[in-house]
């Protein structure tokens, strides 16, 4: 099988899943934060692939999917933000009206096996396994900001895709919600723990008066909030899967320079260095910069930070001189710089970012700033390292990920999980994520201008790391 297989996905039905218990009080309004508004330009799409149907045949209904909808309905009772609808307040800011309107669920068939799909499909094919639908202009009160698609493959494989507006939640929220759904279906009590929607209020502080003292997250927003929409060339997406052995070997080579480096630090440095070489117009620049996106939940003053459902990302810029990158030990220099930058993000940076956004709204008579293109104005690297779980002290298990612990009643873990961000155009987006095998192995999903993306797939350094190509339309090696 070669070429595009888009026509092999047939969406044949649509239904609405509502909560099993009504929200009290009905009609309550939840105001979205300035941080939420900042993300309104983007959407989030996460697809879980299973080799066999992960649902149990046991239950009150004849169809196993109907049984899973029961646990989903019960869980949605704790997520009124997901089943409500977007409305505007008197200032034009977005808020969620808790009206129990429900989550849209689509059912589809795919005329190929899941293994064949992962081997030959590309990003345009994969879009058909999840819902890519912009919020309608005008009145969106009938539009579901959260949508789920269940696609059945020939031979029993299954894909479950969740899509939602980034204004309502970040990718980690999507992962944690889905994990709660699978836990609830298995009867695990942790799946019934309610999420946290609201963070403690901050004590407002005056914004920094000098550029030198401006927190790195505020600097990022100040820069990109002034940029016009980016008109980019056609983008292409490829996913590389690197083994535990390859990453361990790479980390060992730079251990003298940065012994605590993570797979994200290492892979960010490798891909940054190779992309610089592809971009001929910037290869000779005096400086090079990237955007780094990391999760900020560990900085929150809440009992269980990972239960927060909303937007908890920090974006910041890392800029290095070309001289440092071009040295013989340039890769080690990059790894160390990335590691130092990520670990240098503090709670004060997060607080200052929120304060700065609030101060903008006050200056605009309560109107929050419009959404900013956060992914892609410059090459953006997204870390999902925070979803890795440390093994127990008395266990010999490798590091595992919360992502791949999303198992329904038959305890089958996903065989692959894809992440996509809508409207991440411009210089590109690179997402470093865990794999089902655990350990140090990672997938790297690269979205670049098409010409650059093709060249990266032929790059001798990247190919020398013996990656497996997944959902790249090139065939799994």
Helices and strands in order:
Elements: E1 9-17, E2 29-31, H1 34-38, E3 43-50, H2 64-76, H3 80-83, E4 85-88, E5 94-97, E6 103-110, H4 114-120, H5 123-126, E7 146-153, E8 158-165, H6 171-186, H7 216-224, E9 235-242, H8 244-253, H9 263-278, E10 287-295, E11 313-321, H10 322-326, H11 330-343, H12 347-363, E12 380-383, E13 388-389, E14 400-401, E15 416-421, E16 429-434, E17 442-449, H13 450-456, H14 460-463, E18 468-470
Parallel strand pairs: 6-7, 10-12, 12-16
Antiparallel strand pairs: 1-6, 2-5, 3-8, 3-15, 4-5, 7-8, 9-17, 9-18, 10-11, 13-14, 16-17
Structural shape: globular
Radius of gyration: 22 Å
Which residues sit in consecutive blocks of at least 5 with pLDDT less than 50?
208-213, 392-396
| Order of adjacent strands in the largest pleated sheet | 11-10-12-16-17-9-18
- What count of helical segments does DSSP give? 14
Overall structural class, as computed from helix and strand content, comes to alpha+beta
This entry's quaternary arrangement is single chain
Strand content: 15-25%
Q: Separation of termini? A: 15 Å
**Could you give the count of β-strands?**
18
Helix content bin: 25-40%
Largest sheet: 7 strands, mixed
> Mean pLDDT score, rounded?
85
